[in-house]
Amino acid sequence: MAESDWDTVTVLRKKGSAAQSKSKQAIITAQRKGEAVETSKKWAAGQNKQHVVTKNTAKLDRETEELSHQRVPLEVGKVIQQGRQNKGLTQKDLATKINEKPQIIAEYESGKAIPNNQVMGKIERAIGMIHYLIDSKSIQEFERTSQGMD
């Protein structure tokens, strides 16, 4: 009988499930009680992010200067557009052919995309322009040959 203490109270209660703790009501209740509440959203949790730009992002964060990633030149975008049109493909058709989103093709053609060798290689093979997208000399050469064909 020495072990039983009538002054201590033991409360047996189940812990709420994860779904309950994520609900808006549970968050408001915890805030009313004065408990610490941390809310954060998962970024791109259920999406398939294939081409994430991780190149030098930590370096860009540390720098105080105005730095940015190099973009695809407009000349390259024009070459992609001409090659795509010569094949009779729309942006969506080309994107489907290389297993990318149509938005990526639009970014490359408008010069807003950050160059990705994997995507550039797929585009080159799909439109049949091997190594035309590599340097500006090849671009100028392509423009001369395509004008001569018209």
TrEMBL record:
UniProt-listed PROSITE patterns: HTH_CROC1 (PS50943)
Q: Mind telling me which SMART domains this protein's record contains?
A: HTH_XRE
Q: Where in the cell is it found?
A: Nucleus
Q: Which Pfam families match?
A: HTH_3, MBF1
Main localization category: nucleus
Instruction: Tell me the protein's name.
Output: Endothelial differentiation-related factor 1
- Gene Ontology molecular function terms on file: DNA binding
- Coiled-coil residues are none
Q: Which UniProt keywords apply?
A: DNA-binding, Transcription, Transcription regulation
Q: Name one GO cellular component term.
A: nucleus
Species lineage, top-down? Eukaryota, Metazoa, Chordata, Craniata, Vertebrata
Which parts of the sequence belong to the HTH cro/C1-type domain?
A: 80-133
